Amino acid sequence: MKQTSKELLEKVSKHCSNQLTLYKFNTTTLKISKKYREGQLTVLEYLGELSYYYMQEEKQIQQHFREQILKQMQTYSCLDESEYKNGLYDALTDVMDEIILYLNK
User: What is the pTM of this model?
Assistant: First the structure.
């Protein structure tokens, strides 16, 4: 099965963390130049921060999606009471319930 973006970001973050530990603390066992080590550390820190940033963005997608559904419900509130309006609200409410269940896992 294909990885989700969240799983990919977590994997990148973990890899960067492991590599950062390796390059920061194995100063005598790794036979590499100081400049090479600095280059590795710079990129690994950047990628760690970048993956953290996108993990936070991914969390906000859920909130934005929920807000858009609520906005749609508010838009439909001006409709006259009808079967159509009830169908709209029932479908939107079902999706909101699914989101709440997912977020509470």
Answer: 0.67
pLDDT at 1: 72
Q: How far apart are CA 68 and CA 75, in angstroms?
A: 10
Secondary structure element (H or E) that encloses residue 20, with its range: helix 5-25
Q: Which two tokens stand for residue 11?
A: 């994997």
Alpha-carbon distance of 59 to 77, in angstroms, equals: 28
For the chain, the maximum distance between any two Cα atoms, rounded to a whole number of angstroms, is 76
Chain CA centroid to CA 31, Å: 37
Between CA 44 and CA 29 the distance in angstroms is: 19
The reported pLDDT for the residue numbered 80 is 92
Burial class of 83 by CB neighbour count within 10 A (0 to 12, 13 to 18, 19+) = exposed
Residue type, 10: E
pLDDT along the chain (105 residues), means of 10: 86 95 87 92 96 92 87 89 91 86 76
* 2, two tokens: 């294909």
